[in-house]
Amino acid sequence: MTAFPPIERDDWLGAPEGLRLAEGGSVTTPEGYAAAGVASGAKTDRDARDIGILMSTRPNVAALVDTVNALPSVPVKLNRTRDRRAFRAVLVNASKANAATGAAGREDALAMLARAAENLDVPVEQIAACSTGTIGERIDLDLALPGIDAAAAGLAQDGGPAFAEAICTTDRAPKTGAFTLDLPGGAVRIGIAAKGAGMIRPTMATMLAFVTTDAALVVEDLQAAAADAAAASFNRISVDGQMSPSDTLLVLANGQGDPLEGEDLAAFRDALAAVCRWAAIQMVKDGEGAEHAVRVRVEAARDADEAERVARAVGDSPLVKTALFGRDPNWGRISQAVGAALARTPGVPADLAVAIDGAGLSDPAAGAAMEKAEYDITVRLGRGVAAYDLWACDLGQAYVSLNAEYHT
Amino acid sequence: MTAFPPIERDDWLGAPEGLRLAEGGSVTTPEGYAAAGVASGAKTDRDARDIGILMSTRPNVAALVDTVNALPSVPVKLNRTRDRRAFRAVLVNASKANAATGAAGREDALAMLARAAENLDVPVEQIAACSTGTIGERIDLDLALPGIDAAAAGLAQDGGPAFAEAICTTDRAPKTGAFTLDLPGGAVRIGIAAKGAGMIRPTMATMLAFVTTDAALVVEDLQAAAADAAAASFNRISVDGQMSPSDTLLVLANGQGDPLEGEDLAAFRDALAAVCRWAAIQMVKDGEGAEHAVRVRVEAARDADEAERVARAVGDSPLVKTALFGRDPNWGRISQAVGAALARTPGVPADLAVAIDGAGLSDPAAGAAMEKAEYDITVRLGRGVAAYDLWACDLGQAYVSLNAEYHT
User: Fold this and answer.
1) Which CATH superfamily is domain B15-285 in?
2) Residues of B with catalytic annotation?
3) β-strand A386-393 against A293-301: which pairing, if any?
4) Mean of pLDDT values over A210-226
């Protein structure tokens, strides 16, 4: 698979000082990890990797954040019965989401985890399960179980890129890489492998992200950092307002020294959020037919809830998204979305200040900025001091084609 | 303009006994109304009617329901400064929405109303104003004022069809007709002229509906009936989740006898709701590229709010709407939308009962039903007894084309 185009707008990441991209990195760039990705034959291209295993090869702590969808997939429900702090490894299959498969789906997931546990010599309850692909269809164990054997046998310190490929479904490319964070006590590394496309696809809508680090963290600090990072990244991308039953972020930390604290911990938290944002924005850019990634910045809102509500109304609006696709600096469509989000709230300003990369919508510079692959839409409400950033993409014909022509 | 195809599913209207469609009817079918529609040259087709006037020729009462969008158009704001119970007439222009036009737009609206008042010999504050069309552009008074003169001069008892044409923008056809309601005290008539398209268009998103009746009503009863009718019709159509700054429903009642009460009043209220639903469903069917009108019925919800939330999540979901366009009975997409709507609520059932015209999604009859122009999607939550109906349409490529290629 081809590499993903780099993000031009570095300022979107909010990276702390000392965070640098490690060229050619992956989830196995941090010390003490092994990974593999193999083809079991479950994807349409039977030679494409579809089973991935990632594990820490030394003691670690873990954190997990999953979907708020009220009808979660079998693996999400299964992971919730485990102690998420104790996950050492993750088993991923990409082709069937194992959602809406009932008791049989649960048996399938347990059989796969048992096979992985046996191969890896890790207790079954320390292996997280993630499935992505079509909803309502069972995983073919005749393919998956030998695939798990092969993946376990192939685990390697340079297996990160293969793992990143194995977790993808309709992604144009995996969102994967590694970063180095310089800290006074020495550098630590953070790797990520993520999948998911900006315009969520048919029944393959899942966002999965796996983060590895060789930083040492107290497990409670890791969980808090993971929750904050998800809120600042994957929860801030507006695709089509749809929510997968399988979304999962798993973070493994296996540093062996003294746990990070104080400023070092704060820098790590910022770095984790920036790394997750880096992957999340790539998801936005991976929309079928999407030509633009846009940061919707709502400023001067009354409170954080209002700022987020307005940002989502703008970022999810099909009228705004088709205008972005048409490179049309259309005040009416943005105003319509803002007005709807603020319905029934008093004191709405008569005029909004809307700008595209700093230019007012009647300024030709705004139209020119809309030709770019990445730009800002800023909406100032003039009601207070709260703000919210959201990343969204445009909506083109290809989204409809793909989603209408894909049948279960 | 061609007539709109009839609604096949009579049961969708919920019409009371004694309500019959009057062939060839319009807003001037009830007694005591005059209307006109003329071309002032403001539409792209300069010969298309674009200025409409409708008035009661005898004493009447009125009710008005308008948008909850927090950034309403100039005419909506102006109407709110008047006594809505006293409106005798309405002046409509179709081409510019007169929204986001500021103080100049207000002066334009006042000048147009003054011209109408002079022509009609009606106090200016008794004329409601409605504008529909592009946002952010001023009305050309050099065209509009002579147009108002011509419309006023042309007011006629058979002017209903011309008025219905004049209020349209991108509508394939006006939604207009008249009904007779048999009551023990004699028949009354209800006429309607409405505009708006199922898939809301660029900056011409407005829903406008004007209802006339020669029934006699106490003004408070009329206002309550109008509010209920809007809630049961125009507020139950899911287009693309977008909300116009101009939406308005105006109801005029000019019966001269004893006001309706008791069972007669109840029948009238049901009839008004059915007539509004008749027009609202035509809006759903008028979506650019939409091939299906679908009733989303949510049943067995905990409470009315939950039922509505789930129905809107399903009806607004681009993944569901593209599946409808593709005639794909896709359980995963409906379940995904329901799960998102129920996020963070406890006690969600593991399995949903979803049916298309009564057939489960794996039943070939469900796929066959999806070929029809009109069908039901029923979602049973198994959590309580509350229900909600919403009408939605599918999402095809034409929606994107029209909205991306239309520039302000």
Assistant:
1) L-amino peptidase D-ALA esterase/amidase (3.60.70.12)
2) 206
3) antiparallel
4) 98
